[in-house]
Amino acid sequence: MKNLLYKEFRLVVSPLYFLTVLFGALLLIPQWPYFIAMLYLFFFIVPNVFANAKAINDTGFTMMLPIRKRDAVKARVISVAALELAQVVTAVPFAFLNMSVYPRGNMLIDANLAYLGCVFMMYGIFNVIFFPMFYKTAYMLGWPLALSIAGATLFAFAVEALTAAVPAVNHALDGISGGALIRQLPVLGAGMLCYALLTALAYRKSAANFEKVDL
Amino acid sequence: MEILSVQNLCKSYANFSLKDVSFSLDSGYIMGFIGANGAGKTTTLKSMLGLVRKDSGKVRMFGRDFDQNELDLKQHIGFTLGGVDYYAKTPIKRITEVARRFYDNWDDSVYRSYMARFRLDESKRPAELSHGMRIKYSLVLALSHQARLLLLDEPTSGLDPVARDDLLELFQELIENGERSILFSTHITSDLEKCADFITYIVNGRVVESRAKDELLDAYRLVKGTGEQLGGVAPRLIACKAHSFGFTGLMKTADLRQEDALAAEPPSLEDIMIYHAKREADYEKPAV
Q: What is the distance between the alpha carbons of residues B64 and B226, in angstroms, rounded to a whole number?
């Protein structure tokens, strides 16, 4: 797997793609739906990774190597997960900066720990829709992207709507006080767990789908 | 020693199927895998390597089942499906740097010697290489990890005659020590006349012949006769072409009788290919 990841980052995933982490700075925009900042990864970078891989016939080369088909899927899932994790981790300092710059909070969900937990969940939802759908053909990108972005966006919209409309959800997810942040730690943990489980599931389903693809 | 064995390989698509494809290849030989475009050559190679999911059949390499020993066996084989059509704008040096990590037996000195011999410049990108040079680069990758079985899909198509001859000579040189074998698909039969020891001929997804080249050529005769003679021999012909002077057809040598009084001569591989394809086409022709 180490060699396949080396291949991913040497030949397919340009280091420039990691500049996506700069979208974390969008958390400094006052009074804004902060989930959008984390969705840019799916608008620009993920489509580019897959379209580029297709353009350079990465599969043609990878399948010549002494690996199994599912190993190629795992390497690609890990590569995208690396981009996602880089995006969330870089968002952390901007989230804290947001909380200190805007002490009165955000009109929608604050850029707090619960928000970061929900971002993890949102990324997990994207992965579990996108990867298995894409690996049914390993070349058709449009529908898997459209539906997975729609799924992630709907999740973000639901979180925002419930936070605004349901006091109990608002209590659990919103707020930037010390007490609120401690209250949100389980949400962050649940989000990370959810991300890990959904991404692992995405890999398993994708690998099974890719095994059936005739290249 | 048997280096490759394919038994009853089947794969069905909506409009095409491989039917019980079987053949085997011993160490130290070159096998030409011939057939018309769309006959199933690439599908067979891909099914053998697991790139296409076969419906049934067994593939053994070096005496071991491919499905159960895929990772290990891939360390000892080299295959190209249509040359280097990947990473067109990436310098070769970088592609090699990635590829070499995957092989336990990678030998840098072998890599350097073949790169020098083929005059391949590592700073070039695949897009800057001719088709022939790209094929050679893919061979360098296969040879550098000491592959003992080379599976090459149409390596000579698109090459000029000089480059083709050069490549065929290289194939012969590669098997000289008796430890390596090459299976290469082609629809250019003259390639095989120059260098193949064995021929496997596939028509419409079915192996029609798989045997030593000389044996195969001996097994058929190209016969010529008049229109009147055609009626008597037609059932024994593989296929024939009628013309104003009579007919020309292909017949199994065993089916040829003295009393037929036909002009018979050894066929070329191309003749065998053409008449078998014609027979298949005649069978498939819808009744009017």
A: 53
